[in-house]
Amino acid sequence: MALIAINLLPLSLAHAQSDPIYDQGEALYINPGRGGCGQCHGVSGNEPVMPLYPKIGGQSEQYLYNQMIDYREKRRKNGLYIPMEVAMQPFNDEEIRAMAVYLAKQRVF
Predict the structure, then answer these.
(1) Which residues of 50-70 are buried (b: 16+ CB within 10 A; e: fewer)?
(2) pLDDT class for 109, splitting at 50, 70, 90?
(3) pLDDT at 78
(4) Does the keyword Iron apply (predicted)?
(5) I need a labelling partner for 107 at 20 to 30 A (CA). Which of 6, 25, 44, 101 fits?
(6) Model confidence over 65-87: pLDDT tens digits?
(7) Distance of alpha carbon 25 from alpha carbon 15, whole angstroms
(8) How far apart are CA 85 and CA 88, in angstroms?
């Protein structure tokens, strides 16, 4: 039994360590003063407040990054593009990357 506990210790320690990019992404994503993403998509990105808002948690990091950049640069046009263009304006590329990291690591339903 002790051998099992010793073998699991590195896993527990690795999981407990914080990822600064993830933490930054979480803070930016949830911050209602900037984009307020969590207010529409939910804290994990998978609890939209309206059925027409997409579930974005667990999507590919690169996909999420590209979509947010395209909204910010006004290159993506769909039914919800205007509020997304506004929501993405305050963020630079590194901040968008951090939010993509956070969202990509969320559970998928």
Answers:
(1) eeeeebbbbbebeebbebbbb
(2) low
(3) 84
(4) yes
(5) 6
(6) 999 999 999 999 887 899 999 99
(7) 17
(8) 5
